[in-house]
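Summary for the lay section of the report: proteins are chains of building blocks that fold into shapes. Here we show the chain for ABC transporter ATP-binding protein and then a coded description of the shape we predicted for it.
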Amino acid sequence: MNAIELNDVSYQFKKFSLKDISFSVPQGYVTGFIGSNGVGKTTLIRLIMDLIEPDGGEINIFNQRMKENPLEIKNKIGFVYSDLYLNDKWTIKQIESYIAPFYKKWDHTVFANYLEKFNLPYKGKIKTFSTGMLMKLSIAIAFSHEAELFILDEPTSGLDPIVRNEVLEIIQKELIDENKTVFISTHIISDLEKIADYLVYIKEGEVVLNSYIDDIISKFKIVKGDAEHIDSELKDLMNYVEYNRTGYVALTEYANVFKELFGNQVTITEPSIEDLMVYLEKGEYNHSDSGGMIDQQEDIR
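The coded shape description reads as follows.
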């Protein structure tokens, strides 16, 4: 079952456009949502949250359209946005009194426990809070009403490494649960290496990867070898190649071909998520050769 499904979603605003975007977010997993800045990740999250209207296509959350039952669906979502749009003159106490009525299952005790855990003063005005404190407050709000789906838009953006790691540990400890789904958008790819099971990667308005990370890593490999070995046929088997003084480095789905041809003269390693994004951003993903984008929705628990 999928927590989120987008089918042929399109959106146009001035010169920016998204066309026929389709991907799924499997229920019970942490899904990383990546792509270069300006590619439309935040816009897609706003579309999912029904903050803006798509020009076409369909978005389903828990097999329902948001407009069919917005109150019930939004009660199931914990939303963490990179900016907390609240009156900075308010205290946390005032914020809770404003927010709590929107959620059927708001739990003050849980909220207070998170405030204590995060060292956030209940009567402190948020204008005095650091970026890290504001993010922790946003997380505390999202975690305090028994949500089933957590949508996190750049939750570690602007945080120093220590606070960033702390926020990731919070997400990992609190949300790694097969009954909870996490959809996390970030440009800090190393964050996903720690917590993500599944990956959606968008490039130039197209979904390039939509699958389990283990399946993606097993499909792509980094090959290093002697540049003199490369001819036009081998180059066609590469998603990206760059040359240096010692030879070449390539991303490919056909590492077995290189191994059979050159044996120990080539080095083959698994890419990290960051490697994949860097190389696929620079190069191409030839759908016709590879049988389409990686998109495996089978055997989802």
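Put simply, here is one thing we learned. The domain at 216-288 is CATH 3.30.70 (Alpha-Beta Plaits).
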